[in-house]
Model the fold of this input.
Amino acid sequence: MPTRVQTRTIKRPASPLRKPKFQADLAPVEDNTVRSLKQELQLGSNSDFLSEAIALFQWAVSERKQGHKIVSETAAGEKRVLVLPRLERVAPGAALPQVKIDWTEAELEHLARLARSAPASPTEALVRAMRG
Amino acid sequence: MATVIRRLEENDSVESFDCGDGPLNSYLREHAWNNQQKSSIGVTYVAVEEAAPRTVIGYFTVASASLAKDALPRKAVRGLPGYDLPMILLARLAVDRRFAGRGLGHALLSEALKIAVRVSEQVGCRCVIVDAYSTAVEWYQRYGFIAIEGGRGSSHRMYLDIRTIKAAQQSRQSGQV
Done:
């Protein structure tokens, strides 16, 4: 029995009436990639390219939001899962396993004091760490 | 060279990883994958370079934990909500010494704290706990981790309130430093 394969047509986002401008600084390597992709996909303009890219990205985000994996499969059945850190951020439940931590009495007392008190202001290093 | 941080995968190359610490090396080489996939007692995130996307050059392992409210000394619970205290344990964090000094530790800790924020929004988390080596205490303190007094092991248990992490995120978003 043949394997059932589901395919989905990705809808391009409808173009708004008022079109905002989008400008990007690209490294030469990225610029070459864009040019070659436009050629391969037979896209005439940067706007068409961006529109297609957005549609693909939008679809990928929506799939990961639902917890679906994005997989590519070769003709031989070898599968590769797409893992993009940015996409992982929208995946539901960064489900972490539960572990038991051993505490001393003195640690518990201090921990309770810390948890009761007002939170400290973030340090500069912490603010930098939370960038993006 | 761009670095990517993602979950550990089975065919990642970990054999050459060397952070200069035996237990941290052997955890990655021998236990991280099994603990993630089979035992489900810790999820490991690895840093790889785009040019060598399977070679691990840094990692951290996180797990969630909670402290039963009954476990806290009675005199210490006043003022705390009457529930268990959910937390994230940053169990391990290491950088291959050949890649030290490039801000990779910062990037790994940054990702770990962002995971903590996401978890706190999905299932609740009051703080991040780390058991730090003596040599790393000062480094964690720069990020606001506070040493918890009264430990008996060789490592130093440290605490960072999730509200402080969220405040850092918000001040970044609103442009304040």
Observations:
- Strands of chain B lie at 3-7, 43-49, 52-67, 85-95, 127-132, 146-147, 156-161.
- The domain at 3-173 of chain B is CATH 3.40.630.30 (Aminopeptidase).
- DSSP finds four helices and seven strands in chain B.
- The longest strand of chain B covers residues 52-67.
